[in-house]
Amino acid sequence: MRATRRKAKPGEVLFFFGRLAGEDSPDHVGMWGCAGATSRHSNAVMYGFTGARLQDDQTRPTGWKFGNSFLADLEAAGFDTTTIEFSIRVKTPTG
Question: Which residues pair with 14 in a beta bridge?
């Protein structure tokens, strides 16, 4: 797989499967395009897709446990997550 040539536009956050230049193996990538979009925005999107989600579990004292990530649930449902392409733009401030 070639290194991705994708670039996030100003104010945009991307999430996709690819390989960055200098990396050996492909993986899910989050990137941001400045001009309002920051690494915090990219981290929020990345965590939304790959972070473990809390699930209600009445058998535990706390009542909660960590479950699968959204990507793991998509894989379990039969989706090919290497084809995922997600793009979102940061809202422009209204005066």
Answer: 31, 87
Q: In what order do the strands lie in the sheet with 12-18?
A: 27-32, 12-18, 85-89
Distance set, CA 31 to CA 2, 18, 43, 71 (Å): 17, 11, 9, 17
| DSSP three-state, residue 46 | helix
CA distance to 7, 44, 78, 88, 91, per residue, from 10 (Å): 9, 17, 34, 11, 12
Amino acid letter, 29: V
- Conformational region of residue 28, where left means phi above 0, alpha means psi within -120 to 50, and beta covers everything else: beta
Please tell me the predicted confidence (pLDDT) of residue 90: 86
pTM over 0.85: no
Model pLDDT for residues 1-22, shown as the tens digit of each residue: 566 677 888 889 999 988 877 7
